[in-house]
């Protein structure tokens, strides 16, 4: 079996230099960077490899850059015979999952990622986010009660051990203070996946509705609902809601099935979300890592080739 569950990271996973050795080693990866640059009208190699950390971290830059690197890694794996059984992406990574599933062309996806970043960066107000490491003394129910009292929103249910909350900065300071040492402020420019994104949701909805979404070839993660689905209308609705709705990653991963899981591009955040993540999820972020994934899957690829030749 060569089919894998293809997983795409969200913002915060970016790092200067990402994708460089993939492009140097694989023409399929270089072609993805070329296509992204043509669509966006900017040098994506320059952005990913030679910009400052601060410039790369800007929302309108980080989102298309991450998508480009992750899709580049996927194209290399696909060229080596790997196929998708399912696909899911954390936050903006959902666009990558739609590319793998055949719902969106990469050009449309990278254009949407750029616009999404621009809209999120332009949302009014002063927002902040923090991650909370859950414990018996600070379980998710207690954290949720504190959040409701403070007027902040669940932004991501990442795993059995971690949740992320988002909201107006003063409210988030109170929330962090009440949660205590297990709350860690995130280095982000705004309160993503919260009610503070509501003012730009209308423009995002209009952009998503202008793009054709084809029926997927494989199930895709509906991250706002925490399930996998194949209905184009449900996929579109989930994509529209993704600015304000929480990412229900824990539930998506619980529904992901038993196929090997491959985290694409700079996705160490995904492998680190579960205690079992490092063992059960392979990372494909560099040329060496991609080759290791292909080598690990090679017996299945060879078997699939043999089955195909007999049919």
Automatic annotation (TrEMBL):
<feature type="domain" description="Malonyl-CoA:ACP transacylase (MAT)">
    <location>
        <begin position="7"/>
        <end position="301"/>
    </location>
</feature>
<protein>
    <recommendedName>
        <fullName>[acyl-carrier-protein] S-malonyltransferase</fullName>
        <ecNumber>2.3.1.39</ecNumber>
    </recommendedName>
</protein>
<keyword id="KW-0808">Transferase</keyword>
<dbReference type="InterPro" id="IPR016035">
    <property type="entry name" value="Acyl_Trfase/lysoPLipase"/>
</dbReference>
<dbReference type="InterPro" id="IPR050858">
    <property type="entry name" value="Mal-CoA-ACP_Trans/PKS_FabD"/>
</dbReference>
<dbReference type="InterPro" id="IPR001227">
    <property type="entry name" value="Ac_transferase_dom_sf"/>
</dbReference>
<dbReference type="InterPro" id="IPR014043">
    <property type="entry name" value="Acyl_transferase_dom"/>
</dbReference>
<dbReference type="InterPro" id="IPR016036">
    <property type="entry name" value="Malonyl_transacylase_ACP-bd"/>
</dbReference>
<keyword id="KW-0012">Acyltransferase</keyword>
<dbReference type="Pfam" id="PF00698">
    <property type="entry name" value="Acyl_transf_1"/>
</dbReference>
